[in-house]
Amino acid sequence: MLCTKGFLLNPKIKNMPAADYLVTIGLEVHCQIRTATKMFCSCRAGFGYDPNTNVCPTCLGMPGALPVLNEYAIGRTILAGLLLGCSIPPISKWDRKNYFYPDMPKNYQTSQLDLPLCIGGSVPLYEWNFPAGVAAPQTEAGVVRRVRLDHIHLEEDAAKLTHFAGYSLVDYNRGGTPLMEIVSAPDLHTPDEAYAYLKSLQQIMVCAGISNADMEKGEMRCDVNVSLRPKGQEELGEKIEMKNINSMSAVRRALIYEIRRQAEELDAGIRQEQSTRRWDDALGESIVMRTKENAHDYRYHTCPDLIPIHTDPLVQKVRQEIPELPDARRNRLITEVGLPAADATTLVGDADLYDFFRQTVDAGAPARRAANWVINTLTAVLTEKGSTTVGCPLTPRHLAGIIDIVEQGIVSTNQAREVLDLIWEQPELEAPAAADKLGFKKTDAGALEAQVDAVLAENSDIVDLVRAGNTKLINALTGKVMKESNPKPNPKLVTQIITSRLGLS
Ligand code: ZN
Ligand code: MN
Question: Residue 175 CA: which ligand is closest?
């Protein structure tokens, strides 16, 4: 549904009026860590299981059940911190954030308040992650600027509530999933920057294998804080928070609306009060929920069940496995592999596609050709067949095989597409066998030339027209050779032989 009440379609509202105000935006991003098990118990973590099947006394908050730390999740959070240039304090501890709600059966969330795992650091805003149609500043290395972070802490996710008319259902499978909270400094100033921040952060998490960060699946969620103050005023304005916005474009729309709303009210002399509002994306407006909510409302206290962590051994270990960042990957694809910038950006923006590309290269395909096939053909085939790189019958090894038989001149590019379709149906076939089954064979040059000569002799009328300048008719001659030949030769090769025989090349 379009936002009929939002200013995007409201003719009365022209431009953002914020010229007289300084806009300050801070984002709190929750990101589920890609782990096999939960944060404080050995239950399976993950999406898509039957409700309430991955649960135990610990994650159901049964009296007396004790937590056991997930070392891997702590390591991933430290890895995220090292990637983003955070400092890792030598000691980190756990705190209870108390609140009563059916999604949290213990009535507190185990989180971190004053000694989080990562402090400071920053997130690069990549120029290719600004919204479509917005001209991002062009840069040498792709980083427009770095947005400062306050900290990153680790906590557990709450269960998932689904609301129906008159009742709600709760699924505790999600409860206890390791969840990073990445808190930015109030260092963003426009809705476009907020969008680029989220997209860049998501790419870094996916690229490093720390999180799948799929916002549609709730693996990444965003709380937005925004305040306005008159130019020249030092002190920040009253901040408005909008929680759990579930897409990047919705974050951008919410901010555009909210900045305008606050500016209009400030213009009219209405003071803002610190509050939480709900962004209704369908309606295109925010609605006030509650005012004044501070950390002390949660009565945080140190968790008596978990001792503080000495981070040093994990930091030493994780330092050995710091992966490539998206900007480094993109630059490498451009300079070392020789890909056009647009292709490199596509591969950096889609981790599954990148993996398929990398594995196709590992299986022996030349990198440029592999990138071309993956970005153009593979994505088109996947869309056509309603499939994804993960779980489609075509493997990178198959694709490398297909690229190879094209290189060898056994099949043309069009024929290769037929080979691909056959492999899709019969994945047990390797590319050469599939080509063989379709009657595509490497052409015997002598036999093919003889075939061409025979066709030229039989069609002297067409040959005369071609010689007279009607070169379009070469296609007709090629078609005739193709029809007469078995196995099917590469049509490009046939055309080449015809043109050279007629002295046209
Ligand atoms: Zn459990
Ligand atoms: Mn949180």
Answer: 1
Domain range spanning residue 44? 21-310
pLDDT-derived band at 333, boundaries 50, 70, 90: very high
Domain match, 40 and 167 both? yes
Asked if 105 contacts 159 with a C-beta cutoff of 8 angstroms, the reply is: yes
- pTM recorded for the entire structure: 0.82
Q: Are residues 385 and 479 in the same domain?
A: no
| Per-residue confidence band for 295, with pLDDT thresholds at 50, 70 and 90 | low
Structure tokens at 190: 């426009």
Q: Are 261 and 59 in contact (CB under 8 A)?
A: no
User: Between these two residues, 106 and 135, which has the higher pLDDT value?
Assistant: 106
Question: What residues have their beta carbon closer than 5 A to ion ligand 1?
Answer: 41, 43, 56, 58-59
Which ligand number lies closest to the CA of residue 28?
2
- Asked whether residue 327 is assigned to any structural domain, the reply reads no
Classify 52 as helix, strand or coil: coil
Contacts of 311 (CB under 8 A, 6+ apart): 78, 88, 89, 90, 91, 92, 117
What does R_g of the chain's alpha carbons equal in angstroms? 30
156 forms bridges with which residues in the sheet?
178
Residue 446 has pLDDT above 60, yes or no: yes
| Nearest residue to 38 via CA among 162, 212, 196, 159 | 159
Write down the pLDDT at residue 390.
84
Number of C-beta neighbours around residue 387 at 10 A: 14
